[in-house]
Amino acid sequence: MSVPEEIRKVSRPVNTIVEDSGSDGMYRYAVRSRNGARYHGGNPMPRNGRVIGHIINGQYVPIVDKTAISGPDMLSYGSAALFHSVSGDLLQSLLEVYPAKDAYDIIAIACLKVIRPNITCNRLQTHYDRTFTRIFYPDCSLSKNKVCDLLQRIGQDGSKRRSYYNKCLSKVVAEHHVAIDGMLKQDNSGVNDLSKFSYKGRVKGTRDVSVLYAYDIERMEPVCAEVFPGNSIDAASYRSFIVDNDIQKGLIIDDKGFPVKTIRRDLSDRPGLHYLTPIKRNDKRIADNDALRFDGALKGTGEDILYSKRIMKNGTWLYAFRKISTASREEHCFVERSIKKAFDTDKYLKKKDSFGTIVFESDEDMQPLTAYRSYSDRWLLELVFNRYKNDECLDHTNVQNDFSVIGSEFINFIATTATCRILNKARDAKVLEDETYGDMMEDLSEAWRKVKGPADPSSDDEYWIHTLKNSFQLMEALGLSKPVPAPPKRKRGRPRKNASKS
DSSP states of 270-306 as a string? Predict the structure, then answer.
């Protein structure tokens, strides 16, 4: 079909031709480049190349890339960068165990859980596409069905999970203590065998799964975890967890009340395992061993705490602590209640010495600070675990069977490990002195950056998008952005005048 003369006369690049496709759309007249020549019967014939543009509305319009063909040109940077800064070895361990595609999907989901703890499964891809998660962990497929399939496969392959946990356990240095603890997580699914009524769950009318975890006390981060039915017997679960993960040393922290004799009997083949359990304030052994006659003030906690350490006749130890602020609060509450009714002098004198105290029994001879941190710091880790306790991702998958629960908890474990590291990093940088963890993560997420910016950002470069001063201060404190160099100090006083000519 011949091309109208007015179309052929439109200004266009040299060595091109115009073709008429015969359609009625805007792309009817295509502009092709000449691509050399070929000989036919000894005569050179021009050869047409690719389409480089079109004649549209009487003008030549070149072909350009589709809008956002490679994704957005700016993304939320700060919170994803903080996760990335503490998780390099986590990804490396995943790559040594899982196929690269699965490893990147796992770490990307864990990153999104840290950034947005209550994220639903059908929002993972959305927030992946709007944050630097897609830059740090590229080519991930996080649609609802893809994530559901991933959780199933992770849960089905226990050997890979154990291999990953063994890598974590191997990093625990000999001088560190491994604590073993557990928590209940609500799960009312009717299609998995792990969801059962625990003792507490029957009272609440909800079913639970039990999650046991081991964590490095000195580093304050978990090293392995495992899911059990919510109605499982504590001691049996602990032994299974320890044997499955081949934990040879550790400190079982008991706040659930299962008997110490059971621990000794079931774990007698592992002499490196010990226990630490709180006892009641009216336990006779406290008075018999004069445990509340304190030895001194406990250093290294940042709080006013008295301590004592006593060995008992059976060879076990008592560790007693009195927190002054708690003692004052408990005494205040006792007196406040006495205003409403008669003051009982004998009861007050009997309780006064025990206000603010907690006493532990253990079969291990350790430093009092280690004993105190083993129990007190676990509450920080418990708060971190609770951050992922209501697993919205799992609630919105297509299935909720045993394998999905196990797979989801594995990713929660990685998210928890990263969160512990973020807390430690933020604490060392002293950024949590003026704001909460949640506020910090929210402020960081508001730092947007162009994708094509340098990998090592500076607060004064030109690639930031509407980022506030507070976000820059946080990123600089956390090592996520290089601070703006301070201007040179000006010398005080008047400049010296040149000496007068003689």
Answer: -TTEEEEEEE-TT-HHHHHTTTTS--EEPPSSSS-EE
What's the pLDDT at 218?
A: 81
453-492 per-position pLDDT tens digit: 998 999 999 999 988 899 999 999 999 999 987 777 666 6
Looking at the fold, whether 234 and 353 belong to one and the same domain comes out as yes
With b for 16 or more beta-carbon neighbours within 10 A and e for fewer, the 415-424 pattern comes to bbbbbbbbbe
Q: How far apart are CA 236 and CA 245, in angstroms?
A: 14
Q: Any residues with CB less than 8 A from the CB of 424 and at least 6 apart, and which?
A: 219, 220, 221
Residue 27: C-alpha distances to residues 20, 47, 55, 409 (Å): 9, 21, 7, 53
**Domain assignment of residue 449, yes or no:** no
Strands 208-216 and 221-229: antiparallel
Domain residue limits at 312: 173-386
**Domain-located, residue 458:** no
Angle between helices 88-97 and 100-115 (to 10 degrees): 150
The pair of three-digit structure tokens given for residue 324, joined into one six-digit string: 């002054």
Give me 195's structure tokens: 């969801």
Residue that terminates a domain, selected from 324, 356, 386: 386
In Å, how far from its chain's centre is CA 27?
50
Helix axes 368-376, 378-386, angle to 10 degrees: 20
- 198-247 pLDDT, tens per residue? 334 334 444 566 778 888 888 888 888 887 775 454 566 777 888 888 88
Q: How far apart are CA 457 and CA 443, in angstroms?
A: 17
